[in-house]
Amino acid sequence: MSNNISLIIAREYTTRVKKKSFIILTLLLPIMMTALIVLPVLLVMQSEKRQTANILVVDDTDIFINAFEETENTAFSYRSGDIQQLKKEAFDSGEYDCVFHILDNSNGLKSNLYYTEKLPSSLQGNLESQMNEIFFDKILQDSLHIEPTRFEKLQELTKVDVTTVQVDDSGKERENIAEMNEMIGFICGFLIYMVIIIFASQVLRGVLEEKTNRIVEVLISTVKPIQLLIGKIVGIALVGITQFVIWIVLTMAILGGIQLVAPNLFQGDTATEMVAETADAQTIDASTEAALNIFQRINDYFPVSFTEIILSFFFFFIVGYLIYASLYAATGSVVDNESDSQQYTMPVTIPMILAIVLVPTISSNPSGQLAFWFSMIPLTSPVAMMVRLPAGVPLWQLLTSMALALLFLVFCIWFAAKVYRVGILMYGKKPSWKEIFRWLRKA
User: What is the mean pLDDT of the chain?
Assistant: First the structure.
Protein backbone atom coordinates (compact mmCIF):
# COMPACT_ATOMS: atom_id res chain seq x y z
CA MET A 1 0.00 0.00 0.00
CA SER A 2 2.76 2.43 0.94
CA ASN A 3 4.52 1.67 -2.36
CA ASN A 4 1.39 2.53 -4.35
CA ILE A 5 0.96 5.81 -2.44
CA SER A 6 4.58 6.77 -2.99
CA LEU A 7 4.23 6.11 -6.72
CA ILE A 8 1.13 8.31 -6.91
CA ILE A 9 2.86 11.04 -4.90
CA ALA A 10 5.86 10.92 -7.23
CA ARG A 11 3.57 11.06 -10.28
CA GLU A 12 1.59 14.05 -8.99
CA TYR A 13 4.76 15.85 -7.93
CA THR A 14 6.85 15.34 -11.06
CA THR A 15 3.94 16.03 -13.41
CA ARG A 16 3.31 19.43 -11.87
CA VAL A 17 6.87 20.63 -11.26
CA LYS A 18 7.74 19.95 -14.91
CA LYS A 19 4.95 22.18 -16.19
CA LYS A 20 6.00 25.47 -17.79
CA SER A 21 3.42 27.34 -15.68
CA PHE A 22 5.06 26.06 -12.48
CA ILE A 23 8.55 27.04 -13.61
CA ILE A 24 7.48 30.48 -14.85
CA LEU A 25 5.48 31.31 -11.71
CA THR A 26 8.25 30.00 -9.43
CA LEU A 27 10.84 32.24 -11.10
CA LEU A 28 8.59 35.23 -11.73
CA LEU A 29 7.09 35.71 -8.27
CA PRO A 30 10.43 36.29 -6.42
CA ILE A 31 11.28 38.95 -9.00
CA MET A 32 7.90 40.61 -8.43
CA MET A 33 8.28 40.40 -4.64
CA THR A 34 11.78 41.89 -4.87
CA ALA A 35 10.46 44.68 -7.08
CA LEU A 36 7.74 45.47 -4.54
CA ILE A 37 10.44 45.77 -1.87
CA VAL A 38 13.12 47.61 -3.84
CA LEU A 39 11.13 49.96 -6.10
CA PRO A 40 9.57 52.02 -3.28
CA VAL A 41 13.05 52.47 -1.79
CA LEU A 42 14.47 53.59 -5.14
CA LEU A 43 11.58 56.00 -5.67
CA VAL A 44 12.11 57.52 -2.22
CA MET A 45 15.86 57.83 -2.83
CA GLN A 46 15.21 59.41 -6.23
CA SER A 47 12.82 61.92 -4.69
CA GLU A 48 15.38 62.75 -2.00
CA LYS A 49 18.04 63.39 -4.67
CA ARG A 50 15.88 65.92 -6.55
CA GLN A 51 17.40 69.34 -7.13
CA THR A 52 16.82 72.08 -4.60
CA ALA A 53 13.47 73.85 -5.04
CA ASN A 54 14.00 77.61 -5.30
CA ILE A 55 11.02 79.42 -3.82
CA LEU A 56 10.28 83.10 -4.31
CA VAL A 57 8.35 84.42 -1.30
CA VAL A 58 6.11 87.45 -1.80
CA ASP A 59 4.87 88.43 1.66
CA ASP A 60 2.18 91.13 1.81
CA THR A 61 2.09 90.89 5.63
CA ASP A 62 5.84 91.40 6.19
CA ILE A 63 5.62 88.78 8.97
CA PHE A 64 7.54 86.04 7.17
CA ILE A 65 10.34 88.07 5.58
CA ASN A 66 13.61 86.13 6.05
CA ALA A 67 11.80 83.84 8.51
CA PHE A 68 11.58 80.56 6.60
CA GLU A 69 14.22 77.95 7.42
CA GLU A 70 16.05 76.55 4.43
CA THR A 71 16.71 72.81 4.06
CA GLU A 72 18.74 70.64 1.70
CA ASN A 73 15.83 70.64 -0.76
CA THR A 74 14.43 74.15 -0.37
CA ALA A 75 15.91 77.65 -0.79
CA PHE A 76 14.00 80.88 -0.23
CA SER A 77 14.28 84.34 -1.79
CA TYR A 78 12.17 87.33 -0.82
CA ARG A 79 10.74 90.15 -2.95
CA SER A 80 7.86 92.57 -2.79
CA GLY A 81 5.72 94.18 -5.45
CA ASP A 82 2.97 93.27 -7.92
CA ILE A 83 2.37 89.50 -7.72
CA GLN A 84 1.46 89.14 -11.41
CA GLN A 85 4.65 90.85 -12.55
CA LEU A 86 6.77 88.89 -10.07
CA LYS A 87 5.25 85.57 -11.19
CA LYS A 88 5.95 86.38 -14.85
CA GLU A 89 9.56 87.34 -14.14
CA ALA A 90 10.17 84.31 -11.92
CA PHE A 91 8.84 81.71 -14.37
CA ASP A 92 10.17 83.39 -17.53
CA SER A 93 13.69 83.52 -16.14
CA GLY A 94 13.53 79.92 -14.89
CA GLU A 95 15.33 81.00 -11.75
CA TYR A 96 12.52 79.88 -9.42
CA ASP A 97 10.50 76.66 -9.22
CA CYS A 98 7.53 78.28 -7.50
CA VAL A 99 6.21 81.57 -6.16
CA PHE A 100 4.76 81.61 -2.65
CA HIS A 101 2.35 84.54 -2.20
CA ILE A 102 1.24 85.30 1.38
CA LEU A 103 -1.83 87.53 1.31
CA ASP A 104 -2.58 90.33 3.76
CA ASN A 105 -6.03 89.22 4.90
CA SER A 106 -7.84 90.38 8.04
CA ASN A 107 -9.74 87.07 8.32
CA GLY A 108 -6.59 85.02 8.83
CA LEU A 109 -3.50 83.95 6.98
CA LYS A 110 -4.06 82.92 3.39
CA SER A 111 -1.49 82.07 0.76
CA ASN A 112 -1.12 80.75 -2.76
CA LEU A 113 1.67 78.54 -4.08
CA TYR A 114 2.19 78.99 -7.81
CA TYR A 115 4.26 76.54 -9.85
CA THR A 116 4.78 75.35 -13.41
CA GLU A 117 6.04 71.80 -12.80
CA LYS A 118 4.93 69.27 -10.19
CA LEU A 119 6.47 69.91 -6.78
CA PRO A 120 7.30 67.42 -4.00
CA SER A 121 4.20 66.50 -2.03
CA SER A 122 6.01 67.36 1.21
CA LEU A 123 6.66 70.98 0.19
CA GLN A 124 3.15 72.25 0.91
CA GLY A 125 3.15 70.61 4.34
CA ASN A 126 6.60 72.03 5.09
CA LEU A 127 5.49 75.57 4.24
CA GLU A 128 2.29 75.27 6.26
CA SER A 129 4.19 73.91 9.25
CA GLN A 130 6.76 76.71 9.19
CA MET A 131 4.07 79.38 8.74
CA ASN A 132 2.10 78.04 11.71
CA GLU A 133 5.21 78.02 13.90
CA ILE A 134 6.34 81.51 12.86
CA PHE A 135 2.88 83.04 13.29
CA PHE A 136 2.40 81.27 16.64
CA ASP A 137 5.71 82.68 17.92
CA LYS A 138 4.63 86.18 16.85
CA ILE A 139 1.34 85.85 18.75
CA LEU A 140 3.26 84.67 21.83
CA GLN A 141 5.50 87.71 21.74
CA ASP A 142 3.07 90.43 20.64
CA SER A 143 -0.11 89.40 22.45
CA LEU A 144 1.00 87.22 25.39
CA HIS A 145 4.50 88.68 25.85
CA ILE A 146 6.07 85.21 26.13
CA GLU A 147 9.40 84.46 24.56
CA PRO A 148 9.22 81.48 22.13
CA THR A 149 12.33 79.89 23.68
CA ARG A 150 10.67 79.88 27.12
CA PHE A 151 7.51 78.37 25.64
CA GLU A 152 9.52 75.63 23.89
CA LYS A 153 11.25 74.82 27.16
CA LEU A 154 7.87 74.59 28.90
CA GLN A 155 6.63 72.26 26.13
CA GLU A 156 9.67 70.05 26.54
CA LEU A 157 9.18 69.85 30.31
CA THR A 158 5.51 68.89 29.95
CA LYS A 159 5.96 66.47 27.05
CA VAL A 160 4.24 63.10 27.59
CA ASP A 161 5.57 59.94 25.99
CA VAL A 162 3.64 56.65 26.28
CA THR A 163 5.41 53.44 25.28
CA THR A 164 3.45 50.19 25.04
CA VAL A 165 5.30 47.32 26.71
CA GLN A 166 3.88 43.80 26.65
CA VAL A 167 4.65 41.41 29.52
CA ASP A 168 4.46 37.68 28.75
CA ASP A 169 3.68 34.82 31.15
CA SER A 170 7.33 34.52 32.17
CA GLY A 171 7.50 38.20 33.08
CA LYS A 172 9.65 39.16 30.10
CA GLU A 173 8.95 42.64 28.83
CA ARG A 174 8.97 43.63 25.17
CA GLU A 175 8.09 46.88 23.47
CA ASN A 176 5.03 46.41 21.25
CA ILE A 177 4.72 48.28 17.94
CA ALA A 178 1.07 47.83 16.98
CA GLU A 179 1.37 49.12 13.40
CA MET A 180 4.14 46.67 12.52
CA ASN A 181 2.23 43.79 14.16
CA GLU A 182 -0.85 44.59 12.10
CA MET A 183 1.16 44.81 8.87
CA ILE A 184 2.94 41.47 9.40
CA GLY A 185 -0.32 39.82 10.53
CA PHE A 186 -2.15 41.03 7.42
CA ILE A 187 0.63 39.80 5.11
CA CYS A 188 0.76 36.36 6.80
CA GLY A 189 -3.03 35.97 6.81
CA PHE A 190 -3.48 36.97 3.18
CA LEU A 191 -0.51 34.87 2.03
CA ILE A 192 -1.71 31.72 3.80
CA TYR A 193 -5.20 32.23 2.35
CA MET A 194 -3.79 32.48 -1.17
CA VAL A 195 -1.55 29.41 -1.01
CA ILE A 196 -4.22 27.23 0.66
CA ILE A 197 -6.93 28.09 -1.86
CA ILE A 198 -4.59 27.90 -4.87
CA PHE A 199 -3.16 24.46 -4.09
CA ALA A 200 -6.43 23.02 -2.76
CA SER A 201 -8.07 24.09 -6.02
CA GLN A 202 -5.37 22.19 -7.89
CA VAL A 203 -6.52 19.03 -6.10
CA LEU A 204 -10.10 19.71 -7.17
CA ARG A 205 -9.11 20.28 -10.80
CA GLY A 206 -6.84 17.22 -10.77
CA VAL A 207 -9.64 14.94 -9.54
CA LEU A 208 -12.10 16.42 -12.05
CA GLU A 209 -9.64 16.01 -14.92
CA GLU A 210 -8.99 12.36 -14.14
CA LYS A 211 -12.69 11.68 -13.69
CA THR A 212 -13.86 13.40 -16.91
CA ASN A 213 -11.07 11.76 -18.94
CA ARG A 214 -11.92 8.34 -17.40
CA ILE A 215 -8.26 7.96 -16.37
CA VAL A 216 -9.42 7.24 -12.84
CA GLU A 217 -11.04 3.99 -13.97
CA VAL A 218 -7.63 2.69 -15.04
CA LEU A 219 -5.98 3.91 -11.82
CA ILE A 220 -8.65 2.38 -9.59
CA SER A 221 -8.03 -1.00 -11.18
CA THR A 222 -4.51 -1.06 -9.73
CA VAL A 223 -4.76 1.04 -6.55
CA LYS A 224 -7.40 1.62 -3.90
CA PRO A 225 -9.39 4.90 -3.97
CA ILE A 226 -7.98 5.95 -0.58
CA GLN A 227 -4.43 5.44 -1.88
CA LEU A 228 -5.18 7.57 -4.92
CA LEU A 229 -6.72 10.28 -2.72
CA ILE A 230 -3.81 10.40 -0.26
CA GLY A 231 -1.22 10.31 -3.04
CA LYS A 232 -2.84 13.18 -4.91
CA ILE A 233 -3.22 15.39 -1.81
CA VAL A 234 0.30 14.75 -0.52
CA GLY A 235 1.89 15.09 -3.97
CA ILE A 236 0.34 18.51 -4.57
CA ALA A 237 1.22 19.53 -1.00
CA LEU A 238 4.87 18.79 -1.75
CA VAL A 239 4.58 20.90 -4.90
CA GLY A 240 3.27 23.79 -2.82
CA ILE A 241 5.99 23.44 -0.19
CA THR A 242 8.67 23.20 -2.89
CA GLN A 243 7.40 26.31 -4.62
CA PHE A 244 7.09 28.22 -1.36
CA VAL A 245 10.65 27.33 -0.25
CA ILE A 246 12.04 28.30 -3.68
CA TRP A 247 10.19 31.63 -3.45
CA ILE A 248 11.80 32.39 -0.09
CA VAL A 249 15.29 31.30 -1.15
CA LEU A 250 15.21 33.16 -4.48
CA THR A 251 13.78 36.32 -2.93
CA MET A 252 16.45 36.34 -0.22
CA ALA A 253 19.14 35.58 -2.82
CA ILE A 254 18.01 38.43 -5.08
CA LEU A 255 17.83 40.86 -2.15
CA GLY A 256 21.26 39.69 -0.98
CA GLY A 257 22.68 40.22 -4.45
CA ILE A 258 21.20 43.71 -4.62
CA GLN A 259 22.66 44.54 -1.22
CA LEU A 260 26.10 43.34 -2.37
CA VAL A 261 25.94 45.37 -5.56
CA ALA A 262 24.42 48.44 -3.87
CA PRO A 263 25.27 48.20 -0.14
CA ASN A 264 23.87 51.66 0.61
CA LEU A 265 20.49 51.00 -0.98
CA PHE A 266 18.67 50.34 2.29
CA GLN A 267 20.72 52.77 4.34
CA GLY A 268 20.78 56.51 4.74
CA ASP A 269 19.70 59.28 7.06
CA THR A 270 16.00 58.52 6.67
CA ALA A 271 16.38 54.81 7.47
CA THR A 272 18.60 55.57 10.43
CA GLU A 273 16.14 58.08 11.87
CA MET A 274 13.26 55.62 11.48
CA VAL A 275 15.11 52.84 13.31
CA ALA A 276 16.28 55.18 16.05
CA GLU A 277 12.76 56.52 16.56
CA THR A 278 11.04 53.13 16.38
CA ALA A 279 13.40 51.20 18.61
CA ASP A 280 14.06 54.15 20.94
CA ALA A 281 17.72 53.56 20.19
CA GLN A 282 20.69 55.68 21.12
CA THR A 283 22.62 57.65 18.51
CA ILE A 284 23.61 55.43 15.60
CA ASP A 285 27.11 56.07 14.30
CA ALA A 286 28.39 55.27 10.82
CA SER A 287 29.72 51.82 11.68
CA THR A 288 26.46 50.80 13.33
CA GLU A 289 24.50 52.07 10.36
CA ALA A 290 26.58 49.97 7.98
CA ALA A 291 25.77 46.85 9.97
CA LEU A 292 22.05 47.67 10.20
CA ASN A 293 20.00 44.57 9.31
CA ILE A 294 16.28 44.12 9.73
CA PHE A 295 16.64 40.40 10.40
CA GLN A 296 18.95 41.08 13.36
CA ARG A 297 16.42 43.39 14.96
CA ILE A 298 13.13 41.76 14.03
CA ASN A 299 12.81 39.74 17.24
CA ASP A 300 13.03 42.99 19.22
CA TYR A 301 9.87 44.24 17.54
CA PHE A 302 7.54 41.28 18.03
CA PRO A 303 5.99 39.76 21.17
CA VAL A 304 6.79 36.37 19.65
CA SER A 305 9.98 35.23 17.97
CA PHE A 306 10.23 35.34 14.20
CA THR A 307 11.02 31.61 14.28
CA GLU A 308 7.69 30.95 16.01
CA ILE A 309 5.88 32.90 13.31
CA ILE A 310 7.58 30.92 10.53
CA LEU A 311 6.94 27.53 12.21
CA SER A 312 3.31 28.42 12.91
CA PHE A 313 2.91 29.57 9.31
CA PHE A 314 4.13 26.22 7.98
CA PHE A 315 1.90 24.31 10.42
CA PHE A 316 -1.28 26.20 9.51
CA PHE A 317 -0.37 26.12 5.82
CA ILE A 318 0.07 22.34 5.83
CA VAL A 319 -2.93 21.56 8.05
CA GLY A 320 -5.14 24.19 6.37
CA TYR A 321 -4.18 22.91 2.96
CA LEU A 322 -4.87 19.28 3.94
CA ILE A 323 -8.30 20.25 5.31
CA TYR A 324 -9.37 22.15 2.21
CA ALA A 325 -7.66 19.73 -0.18
CA SER A 326 -9.57 16.81 1.38
CA LEU A 327 -12.90 18.62 1.08
CA TYR A 328 -12.12 19.81 -2.45
CA ALA A 329 -11.09 16.29 -3.49
CA ALA A 330 -14.38 14.95 -2.15
CA THR A 331 -16.18 17.65 -4.12
CA GLY A 332 -14.33 16.79 -7.32
CA SER A 333 -15.29 13.15 -6.99
CA VAL A 334 -19.06 13.78 -6.90
CA VAL A 335 -19.37 16.20 -9.86
CA ASP A 336 -18.51 16.02 -13.55
CA ASN A 337 -17.42 19.65 -14.16
CA GLU A 338 -15.92 22.56 -12.24
CA SER A 339 -19.04 24.74 -12.41
CA ASP A 340 -21.09 22.13 -10.51
CA SER A 341 -18.42 21.94 -7.83
CA GLN A 342 -19.25 25.47 -6.61
CA GLN A 343 -22.39 24.14 -4.93
CA TYR A 344 -20.30 21.94 -2.63
CA THR A 345 -17.14 24.03 -2.19
CA MET A 346 -18.90 27.30 -1.37
CA PRO A 347 -20.08 26.28 2.14
CA VAL A 348 -16.51 25.43 3.20
CA THR A 349 -14.88 28.36 1.35
CA ILE A 350 -17.15 31.05 2.81
CA PRO A 351 -15.57 30.83 6.32
CA MET A 352 -12.09 31.42 4.86
CA ILE A 353 -13.35 34.34 2.77
CA LEU A 354 -15.07 35.78 5.85
CA ALA A 355 -11.81 35.51 7.79
CA ILE A 356 -10.02 37.50 5.06
CA VAL A 357 -12.75 40.16 5.07
CA LEU A 358 -12.39 40.50 8.86
CA VAL A 359 -8.57 40.70 8.83
CA PRO A 360 -8.58 44.48 9.58
CA THR A 361 -10.94 43.92 12.53
CA ILE A 362 -8.91 40.98 13.87
CA SER A 363 -5.57 42.77 13.50
CA SER A 364 -6.85 45.92 15.24
CA ASN A 365 -8.14 43.88 18.21
CA PRO A 366 -6.22 40.56 18.27
CA SER A 367 -7.32 39.76 21.84
CA GLY A 368 -11.04 40.33 21.21
CA GLN A 369 -13.74 37.68 21.23
CA LEU A 370 -14.15 37.75 17.43
CA ALA A 371 -10.43 37.19 16.88
CA PHE A 372 -10.33 34.45 19.54
CA TRP A 373 -13.20 32.37 18.16
CA PHE A 374 -12.14 32.76 14.53
CA SER A 375 -8.67 31.50 15.51
CA MET A 376 -10.27 28.42 17.13
CA ILE A 377 -12.59 27.39 14.27
CA PRO A 378 -10.50 25.08 12.02
CA LEU A 379 -11.90 26.48 8.76
CA THR A 380 -10.84 30.04 9.72
CA SER A 381 -7.97 29.47 12.16
CA PRO A 382 -5.16 29.37 9.52
CA VAL A 383 -5.90 32.98 8.59
CA ALA A 384 -7.12 34.33 11.94
CA MET A 385 -4.33 32.82 14.07
CA MET A 386 -1.61 34.07 11.72
CA VAL A 387 -3.12 37.56 11.88
CA ARG A 388 -3.14 37.44 15.69
CA LEU A 389 0.26 35.82 16.19
CA PRO A 390 2.56 38.84 15.58
CA ALA A 391 0.76 40.73 18.37
CA GLY A 392 1.29 37.85 20.82
CA VAL A 393 -1.02 34.91 21.54
CA PRO A 394 -1.08 32.92 24.80
CA LEU A 395 0.55 29.53 24.34
CA TRP A 396 -2.57 27.63 25.43
CA GLN A 397 -4.62 29.37 22.73
CA LEU A 398 -2.06 28.55 20.04
CA LEU A 399 -1.84 24.90 21.09
CA THR A 400 -5.65 24.61 21.37
CA SER A 401 -6.08 26.05 17.89
CA MET A 402 -3.52 23.59 16.51
CA ALA A 403 -5.15 20.64 18.29
CA LEU A 404 -8.63 21.54 17.01
CA ALA A 405 -7.24 21.91 13.49
CA LEU A 406 -5.63 18.46 13.67
CA LEU A 407 -8.82 16.84 15.00
CA PHE A 408 -10.86 18.48 12.25
CA LEU A 409 -8.30 17.30 9.71
CA VAL A 410 -8.83 13.69 10.81
CA PHE A 411 -12.57 14.15 10.32
CA CYS A 412 -12.06 15.72 6.87
CA ILE A 413 -9.82 12.85 5.72
CA TRP A 414 -12.38 10.30 6.92
CA PHE A 415 -15.21 12.24 5.24
CA ALA A 416 -13.27 12.67 1.98
CA ALA A 417 -12.29 8.97 1.88
CA LYS A 418 -15.92 7.86 2.26
CA VAL A 419 -17.22 10.25 -0.40
CA TYR A 420 -14.31 9.75 -2.79
CA ARG A 421 -14.62 5.95 -2.71
CA VAL A 422 -18.20 6.08 -4.02
CA GLY A 423 -18.32 9.32 -5.99
CA ILE A 424 -15.18 8.87 -8.12
CA LEU A 425 -16.87 6.23 -10.32
CA MET A 426 -20.24 8.03 -10.62
CA TYR A 427 -21.04 9.79 -13.91
CA GLY A 428 -23.95 11.82 -15.20
CA LYS A 429 -25.62 12.29 -11.84
CA LYS A 430 -25.04 15.00 -9.25
CA PRO A 431 -25.82 13.51 -5.82
CA SER A 432 -27.82 15.41 -3.23
CA TRP A 433 -26.50 16.21 0.25
CA LYS A 434 -28.84 13.56 1.62
CA GLU A 435 -27.33 10.92 -0.63
CA ILE A 436 -23.77 11.97 0.28
CA PHE A 437 -24.50 11.61 3.99
CA ARG A 438 -25.93 8.17 3.23
CA TRP A 439 -22.54 7.17 1.83
CA LEU A 440 -20.91 8.05 5.14
CA ARG A 441 -22.91 5.35 6.92
CA LYS A 442 -21.65 2.66 4.59
CA ALA A 443 -18.76 0.50 5.71
Answer: 78
